[in-house]
Specification:
heterodimer, A: 37% helix, B: mainly alpha, 2 domains
């Protein structure tokens, strides 16, 4: 817990040890891991030189798991014990299952997490967090073996349009895999970072990201190493798979298949994919599907999928408007995601943005690489790029008001971190409590939004209706984590909650899962904590001493200076001993005594930034 | 010493003024965030990160206010004269009230007809009106002695037009979906 360590680039006060960090693209179909080595970000291959890891998991027994290509091979042999496309279930409730087409209803059961569990033929039941965690662990192992050390932290990418529940589930999966999440990064933003740093491109960029199952559009301004997200939008249930489904539907109709013939539908999907791919090179293909023989032209297929592509363009329009950017102000359009290989998508995107879309970047790796660059920054490895990413919240955050209406407190695309307050009042005489229901989404009715949390403010002094002043404050930090506080301002009664979405796992559930998993070696937790506290104490002492030397005399009164110094000496003494709690307390005292000092130091450094000469060449 | 007491204008090194160069404001925000943003303090401890978050939150907040003509005007009156115009919504101007009613009705009809082209035209019209109204407000702020009542009315009128623009966006979402 250091005081502000203002170190000019290249002359840091303590020798910096390079810490290991990685970026992970946890995809619906494939996943990748990348890291920055000797200043260069690159994806890491497995021992067979393959960079991608299919997001497929094969459960042979409770403790016997295969992930990736081997699991994919098993899909043909025993599909009942293999799970793929698990990303679609992340953070979803059973009630959402209507939207999810990959899993049949009888495969899914209610699980403790609130998310559906997947039941396999061999009786094993896995929830989406566990399955994702197995994928993450496999990637992390690959990185740790390649880099020869433990990962200090990871940045995991998620679709920009993921809601809080889906994000939380992703974080839970990482925690279960024993990974420290530095940040969840939106996939299109990650792509922009990789692309922008690689090419030095500046100006307004639209990132059009059409994957198998999700569509994201982000508008960013790139300027001198600052990546400013202006707006982001999309559809978390729209992707290239919908092309296959639409084409498959056509086949099924031609062949006159009964609507409950699941197997025929599956076959049609596979056939549809082949047709789609074949038609990128030729204009007509001969098709044999069950009893139907015929020809399908590219034009026919384009007519079938055009409405889906148009739907993505509608999102683009709205997101541009949110960004306050006119279509002709967009300098570059970057295409990401496998489904942008479809010619009609490229055509329509070009027509919409009036610039030829850039397709020369490797759409498979770019997201992981961007994540690795951000991970390197967030773990504290100074880079020459001095890049800074300014993000927004993708979906509006609101509160339930009378009549089941959702009132927005922080509208979508507001830059974070941000805090907003709204005042409410009681509607009954003598009302002493108020329920706060935190919701996320754009719709007017609460029932159409995602419910994030509920809590109560109690102990409001009885007053006539309308007299109480209840201030509800939403604070979103740079990680996108929401903290809600409710306060009756005339009496000072307070309640707060750190929002953990209703569909997430509780801390106990995670702990239980962690304990039962074998990925964690048994380590003496006490010893580890003591070691960590000692390291922390040493860090605090060093940082505060350096700060005092630098401008303590200048910014502190003699009294304040003495108070800081004495708490520092106290900490120094205590940290020689073995009392974890005492060290913790002593650190807290130092922090309390230096809070004002740290604030003044930061203000001084910010003020310098405005003068402009001290900061880079901005 | 810089402190939380600095008003939004001071944070950006500006005199309290209605006229704010938007490009200069954006450039300054970027510069300030380069120094204040929590990600720039990633190697610092939790205290430092917390401070960075608070300062960045305030900068983001200040930027949102200074960027928006209505919020900026309201904030300016608050800072310079201590007058809160965010809650007082009475305007004694029958002509304007009539116009307000007519505009509301026009929007209502367009939304009912689901006429996207008419909606765009309507949006253009309101945007132009907002531009004119903002210029008028600017004139009032240019005067040596501010006419507070006139300012209040001008701010309210501009606020109504921005509210209408917001409603147009909602209507557009409805028509397009």
């Amino acid at each position: 817990m250091a005081l502000l360590q203002i170190s000019e680039p290249g002359q840091s006060t303590e020798p910096h040890q390079h810490k290991l960090a990685a970026g992970i693209d946890l995809g619906t179909t494939n996943s990748l891991i990348a890291t920055v080595r000797s200043g260069k970000a690159e994806t890491l291959p497995d021992t067979h030189s393959k960079h991608t890891l299919p997001s497929v998991v094969h459960y042979m027994g409770e403790e016997s798991v295969e992930v990736g290509y081997k699991a994919k091979e098993q899909q043909a042999i025993e599909p009942g014990n293999v799970i793929s496309s698990i990303k679609r279930l992340m953070g979803r409730g059973l009630a959402d299952m209507g939207k999810i087409k990959e899993f049949s209803a009888n495969q899914l059961v209610e699980s403790e997490s609130g998310m559906p569990g997947v039941v396999l033929e061999n009786g094993i039941e896995k929830n989406p967090v566990e399955v994702s965690s197995d994928i993450l662990r496999t990637l992390a192992n690959r990185a740790e073996e390649t880099l020869g050390g433990e990962l200090g932290g990871v940045v995991i990418t998620v679709p920009a349009y993921f809601d809080e529940a889906q994000r939380q589930a992703t974080k839970d999966a990482a925690q279960l895999a024993g990974l420290k999440v530095l940040r969840l990064l939106n996939e299109p933003t990650a792509a922009a970072v990789a692309y922008g740093l690689d090419t030095g491109s500046e100006g307004i960029h639209a990132i059009y990201d059409l994957g198998g199952g999700t569509f994201d559009i982000s508008i960013l301004r790139l300027q001198k190493g600052v990546f400013e997200v202006l707006a982001t939008g999309g559809d978390s249930a729209l992707g290239g798979d919908d092309f296959d489904r639409a084409i498959g539907q056509y086949l099924v109709e031609q062949a006159g298949v009964e609507s409950d013939d699941r197997r025929a539908y599956q076959l049609a999907m596979i056939k549809a994919r082949d047709i789609k791919e074949a038609l990128t090179d030729v204009d007509t293909v001969d098709v044999n599907f069950l009893d139907w023989d015929g020809k399908i032209t590219r034009q026919q297929v384009e007519d079938i999928i055009a409405p889906i592509v148009d739907k993505t363009l509608l999102s683009c329009r709205r997101t541009l408007k949110d960004a306050g950017v006119k279509v002709d102000e967009v300098d570059k359009v970057v295409m990401v995601g496998g489904s942008t290989r479809v010619p009609l998508v490229r055509e329509k995107v070009e027509k919409h943005f009036k610039v030829p879309p850039l397709t020369d970047i490797d759409p498979d790796k770019v997201v992981a690489i961007g994540a690795a660059i951000q991970a390197n920054v967030l773990i504290g490895n100074k880079s020459d790029d001095e890049m800074l990413l300014l993000d927004v919240i993708p979906l509006s955050l609101g509160v339930e008001t009378m009549g089941g209406l959702a009132e927005k407190i922080i509208p979508r695309n507001t830059p974070i971190p941000i805090a907003k307050a709204q005042e409410f009042t009681t509607f009954k005489d003598g009302q002493t409590a108020m329920a706060i229901h935190v919701v996320q989404g754009e719709r007017e009715l609460v029932e159409d939004c995602r419910s994030l949390a509920r809590f109560e403010l109690r102990g409001i002094p009885p007053m006539v209706a309308g007299a109480a002043r209840i201030k509800v404050t939403y604070q979103v930090d740079a990680d996108g984590l929401l903290q809600v506080t409710a306060e009756e301002t005339t009496s000072g009664v307070k309640a707060d909650i750190t929002v953990k979405p209703s569909y997430g796992l509780s801390d106990e559930q995670i702990t239980t899962m962690l304990e039962s998993s074998f990925s964690h070696a048994d380590e003496d937790i006490q010893a580890r904590m003591l070691r960590e506290q000692k390291v922390e104490a040493a860090r605090v002492i060093e940082a505060v001493s350096a700060a005092l030397n630098e401008n303590g005399k200048e910014l502190l009164s003699e009294e304040e200076f003495a108070a800081v110094q004495s708490s520092l000496e106290q900490l120094n003494q205590v940290s020689q001993g073995d009392d974890i709690e005492a060290i913790e307390n002593a650190i807290e005292v130092v922090e309390k005594n230096t809070n004002e000092f740290a604030s003044r130091r930061m203000d001084a450094s910010i003020a310098k930034a405005l003068v402009g000469h001290e900061v880079d060449e901005l | 010493m810089a402190s939380a007491q600095q008003n939004y204008f001071e944070l950006f090194g500006l005199e309290p003024n209605f006229f704010v160069d938007q490009k200069d404001l954006s450039d300054k925000l970027r510069r300030l965030l380069h120094s204040a943003h929590p990600d720039r303090h990633a190697s610092g401890g939790s205290q430092q990160q917390m401070l960075a978050m608070q300062k960045t939150t305030r900068l983001n907040d200040a930027f949102a206010v200074l960027k928006h003509p209505v919020k900026r005007a309201q904030y300016l009156l608050q800072v310079v004269k201590g007058i809160d115009t965010t809650k007082d919504h009475t305007v004694d101007d029958p002509e304007f009230l009539m116009q307000q009613l007519e505009l509301r009705e026009e929007l209502h009809n367009i939304t009912g007809d689901k006429d996207a082209t008419a909606l765009m035209d309507f949006a253009d019209k309101i945007e132009q009106m907002a531009e004119v109204q903002e210029a008028e407000l600017g004139e009032l702020f240019k005067q040596d002695a501010w006419d507070i009542d006139a300012l209040k009315v001008a701010i309210y009128k501009l606020q109504f037009l921005y509210k209408t623009l917001h409603d147009i966006e909602l209507a557009e979402d409805k028509i397009l979906d």
